[in-house]
Amino acid sequence: MKYVPLWICILAFSILPGCSAEETSETAPEVQTPDNTAAIETNPSSEPAQAQEQQKPVRVAQADTGEQTVTKIQAPQKASPYKAGTHYQILTPAQPTSSGPEQIEVAEAFMYGCPHCYTFEPFMEKWVPKQADNVRIVRIPVLFNRQAEVHARVFYTADALGVLDKTHLPFFREIHANRRAMTSERDLVEFFGRHGVDEDTFKKTFRSFYVEHKIRVARTLSQRYRISSVPTVIVNGKYSSVGSNLAGNDLLALMDHLVEKESSR
Questions:
Q1: Residue 233: which of 118, 129, 88, 115 has the closest Cα?
Q2: Ranges of H-type helices in 80-208
Q3: Of 212, 184, 188, residue with least CA distance to 199
Q4: Which of 31, 51, 85, 108 is such that its CA lies 20 to 30 A from the CA of 220?
């Protein structure tokens, strides 16, 4: 048996493949995933990613410990700043509305002669266009006195003639900014004339069956909603802002809360 010299053995080992010091240090094994997939294991269905994220629990692949279960914890909901009996009243029983079953009706009870309604109306005018398509705005002129009844006829006359958008805020201003009672026939004819309505058309409409019917409905609704002050907002025949002492943006915020409350049913 022949012996191989020691120097030949040393030379042979030096030319065999080996690992560097960096390559032999301990590293975490790479997570192997199927092609075009992430390390997080998801439902292989074709549902959108947003819907999959809402599924509970979520299984997460781990390189060293296998699979573990992670439960998403939802943040606690903030308590509502609005309380029934303090910021709004619950109408019992709830009253029927003139809107469809899929709509949320927001009824504003007002009076042209009321200075608080005059102050609130510009806020309301800005709030209305921001509402979703399923929110329907209804205005109810109350009839607390004879002057209020004349002004309610003005409101429904303008509505019947299709000029309400042109006359609503200007009529408020005539009363409060210009200090006019706006109850005489002469003043009303002149006011409607400025908005393209001739005298004969105004007089016929002012005493028309349509306006008479609307006056009766407004009186009935005021009783059903137990309206004792204005402005008052009634949401879906269920919630009334009466007695809340909220005004301006604060009242709008309450309205947003009640509309959202109805939307989440």
A1: 88
A2: 115-127, 146-160, 164-176, 185-193, 199-206
A3: 188
A4: 85
